[in-house]
Amino acid sequence: MRPKVYALGLTAMAAALFLGTVTANIIIDPQRVFGTGLLCSPLNQNDRYLALARYEEQADHYDALFLSSSRGGAFSIDELSRRMNGSRFARFSMPGAQVGEYLAILDHVIRGKADRNLRLSAVFMLLDIDSLGGRPVSKLGLQYQLPPALTGESMGRFRWRYLVAIQFQTWRGEITRAWNNCGGGGNRTERHASERSETDGLAPPDGLATPVGLSGKKTITAHANYSPQLAQLKDFVALCRQNNIRLTVALSPLHVQRLREYSAEDLKHAVDDVSNIVPVWYFASPHWLSSPDLWTDIGHFTPKVSEMMLERIFAERPPSELDDFGRLYGNQLENQSAELR
Amino acid sequence: MAAVVLFNSPEFIFLFLPAAVFLHFTLARWSINAAIVGTATSSLFFFAWWNPPYILLPILSALSNFWLAIHMAQAGKVASRRLLVTGIVGNLAVLCYYKYADFLLSIVDGHKFTPPQVPLALSFTTFVQIGFLVYVHERRLKVDFNRYFLFLAFFPHLIAGPVVRWGSLGKQLADHERYRPNWNNIALGLTIFVFGLAKKLLIADELSPHVATVFDAASRGEPVTALAAWTGCVAFSTQIYFDFSGYSDMAVGLGLLFNLRLPINFAAPLRATNMFDLWRRWHITVCRLARDLIYVPISRANPSRIGRTLALVVTMMVLGIWHGAGWTFVAWGAYNVVLLLINQSWQTLRPHGTPGVIGNFLAWLLTFTAFSAGAVFFRAADIETSMHLIRAMIGFGEPVVAQHLTLDLDYRLISDGYVSEAFILQWFGTAWSIRATLWTAAALAVALFVPDTMEITGYREGDAQSNWRRPVGPFAWMPSARSLAIVVILVAITFGQLGRVSEFLYYQF
Q1: Half-sphere exposure at residue A77, Cβ-oriented, CA atoms within 13 angstroms
Q2: Interchain contact B222–A (C-beta under 8 A)
Q3: Which residue in A157, A339, B324, B424 has the most C-beta neighbors within 10 A?
Q4: How far is CA A322 from the centre of its chain?
Q5: Do B14 and A164 touch (CB under 8 A)?
Q6: For residues B183 and A4, is the Cβ–Cβ distance under 8 A?
Q7: What is this structure's pTM?
């Protein structure tokens, strides 16, 4: 073979690979960052990017934030709004989200509102105690990348990553779904459920997982980022106080099967550490909570559970059957509860 | 550190590189000087991507060194020597200011030293500039500024070598024939580039998280088992070899696209059977320049055994410190001095020994083990971390209490009953795993048994000793449909890894 043919052949193959990748990413838009919208709503959309984009579209309309991981997808924003004096909540329910990301969003929103002489009145934050201290997932995959407005990155650079990423399986999956009239592949809640084990900081793809003791129980407080994330939580709370924002913090309930994976002593330690920073609603796992109709999978509860949580948190007189479900923890509770409620 | 345009990033491969090559040969059809200026500008753009204001540094360095070179060419021997000394001191002063100032101050006032952010490419360009000045001083050459500037700033070697010499690259830049596309070189260059990319992305980057886990655990003072410490060091030695030789391959490949032949930097050093051999085959261009600029002058001034030993000590210590400011690099240099002196003594005792297969294997094992153990200084964040690992390696580390198994890399093995959790905790502790061991062994096997890029392609520029090369038989590269198919497959595999761009280890030096 002549060297020229070889060199041009190799260059052409590489160029074709590159252009094919770019074209596929623009047309399929698997993370919905280009807004092409030619196929179905993708399963791997970047919820962080989209949540912020939705917020920015009507930034002046919202005066409250709902921050959670994908578990918060079960909450009704309208119901939350009704319970919290009609506050207009912007929803940020992002798979595997952690407190550092909530802090970045809060900071961004407060600054934006201050520029327009507006203020944020309330924040409802749903924390996942089981992934507290885990490695943030926002660096693990394209669908988890934080939007440029939160990282300071340029939009061009952000989009470039999505343009040149080879993602055969995702392309194939999206094309198959489009072929099946957007059916197949599961709905988004199911998708979150199936990817949760990889993305909620419990078992990231590189194998750095929740520490496990010899007893076989997972321990939260041994997470590498445990202390830094508690510090971020402190900053978050301080930011809310500085800006006179009504903050409600709840820990998402754990399925009994999930709960058994954790050392009870360590879990209590972690809840205590959080409640030392901010009063927090801890929803223990009474036996009735393991009922299958309350869970879509062991990581995600149904809207019914979220309604019970809101009832427990906000009702003047919660029904007696919820007595063993949800309790407000806080070492400085006496001083802070009035402020909180 | 700001963003760097890496050879392994899509923006470099698919945007910058094609544009730079196209610009070079298009301008060359019009004028050679235009091509030189155009590619020099591309190189500055490449550098400026990292941190635009710092672009002044290579420009000022080039202007001042060129000014010295002009005056040296016109001056008498003594005056030229003075200018040379001024140039060397000036270049080293800039390097010291950015790289060693805080370290030196920490020695004086005892404050805690923090590794500085050294301007990109400074360590390498300092060596290149000093080599250039010495060359001009010895020959009193007149130098064309445009050629000189491209020689210095040519982006394939600018950031992390190979360290180029004016006597080689300068001459090539003067050859007008080289400003026409050479399809032989382009085909070869693309192939070498792809091989280098594969070394970096498919091997070095796979080892990186395992190495980081064990060294980070040591830096936090956590117990590390002897096996974890040893295999961690072996993994790092293998990682840095694939990382840097991959980078050097890519640089050579890029040079060939411009019809310029850069020197090879690695000659399968992990196969070396003694320390002198290893250092002749590792980071060849820097070691050779250090030999010419430091070892030879000192040993020539004092050719006795003591003089040569002194030259060896100074050369290796300079090489150690050149890699970074900090006591770990001083210790690493000193450690290698000791290894080389032991090697020298052995060669004195057994001058004519011809080892058999077993002897060769033992020689390799000893050499590789000794070299890998040096990673405790080279990779560790500080001396405390190094000592922590050394204690573990010699069996005096704290036992792993095994409260937590923080890695789940071996869960499949545990859950399938092949190995117990207690076994992993006892032997590998919390910072290492069976999977990491297997990765390390596989990578080492590739380094030892798979022909190197330069063996496969037969590229020999700057390869002073070719006795390391083994016959590659059917693996020998030539432009053919089979080679094209193999390289295209490699491109497709590596392309899938481009999304997780990671920096080259030698950028930090």
Answers
A1: 17
A2: no
A3: B424
A4: 26
A5: yes
A6: yes
A7: 0.81
Measured CA to CA, the distance from residue A108 to residue B4 in angstroms comes to 27
pLDDT at A216 over 50: yes
Phi, psi of B491 (to 5 degrees): -60, -45
How confident is the model over B405-429, as pLDDT tens digits? 556 667 777 777 787 777 888 888 8
**Mean pLDDT value across chain B:** 89
Q: Is B156 exposed, middle or buried (0-12, 13-18, 19+ CB in 10 A)?
A: buried
Cα Rg for chain B, rounded, in angstroms? Answer: 24
Higher pLDDT, A316 or B152: B152
The amino acid present at B441, given as its one-letter code, is A
Closest C-alpha to B454, from B430, B472, B441, B479: B472
Within 8 A of A21 by CB-CB distance, chain B residues are 495
Q: Please report, as a single letter, which amino acid is at residue A98.
A: Q
Return all residues near A170 (Cβ < 8 A) that are at least 6 apart: A28, A30, A42, A44
Is B323 labeled as catalytic in the residue annotation? Answer: yes
- The 10s digit of each residue's pLDDT in B130-171 is 999 999 999 888 899 999 999 999 999 988 879 999 999 999
pLDDT at B508: 56
Cis peptide before B162 (omega within 30 of 0): yes
| pLDDT reading at A334 higher than 50 | no
DSSP category for residue A252: P
Question: What are the structure tokens assigned to B38, written together?
Answer: 């155009």
DSSP 8-class letter at A59: T
Cα nearest neighbour of A162 on chain B: B499
